[in-house]
Amino acid sequence: MITTIPASVLELGIDFEGYADIARNVGRIRIIPLWKREKILEEADKKLSKNLNGKISRALLDIANDREFYEIAGVPYYEGPPEGEKIFITAFADYLLRIKR
């Protein structure tokens, strides 16, 4: 269970439940084919505000130190973000696309 949430994540309009959803989404995104991940990122590029990219980048820096997020995501904390943050970015983009619909 998530007990804290970075302020940078709150700035994106994401609450505790959404933050936990994104963490679980990391696990899901890790197992889908690369072409589907690329499609998510392309759709996000078209549909989400460009200033979200900077906000997501700040959130990712804060998440880098959040062991609870990694635990829920099923990612070993000591290994850092899978695929150099690209999975985390895709998980955020996918979540934001779903809540915007």
How would you explain this protein's 3D organization?
With 101 residues, the chain is an all-alpha fold. It has one domain (7-100). It contains 6 helices and no strands. The chain has helices spanning 7-10, 16-31, 34-47, 51-63, 67-73, 86-100. α2 packs across α5 and α3 crosses α6. The N and C termini lie far apart (26 Å). The model has no long low-confidence stretch (mean pLDDT 87).
Keywords for this structure?
single chain, mainly alpha, 68% helix, 101 residues
In brief, what are we looking at here?
With 101 residues, this protein is mostly helical.
Could you name the ranges where pLDDT drops below 50 across 5 or more consecutive residues? none
Q: Could you tell me the radius of gyration in angstroms? A: 12 Å
**Oligomer, anyone?**
single chain
**Helical proportion?**
55-70%
Instruction: Provide the number of structural domains.
Output: 1
* Main sheet specs: none
Task: Count every helix, treating DSSP H or I runs of 4 or more residues as helices.
Answer: 6
Strand content: under 5%
The SS-based structural class is: mainly alpha
Count of β-strands: 0
Order of helices and strands: HHHHHH
Mean pLDDT equals 87
Shape: globular
What is the rounded distance between the termini? 26 Å
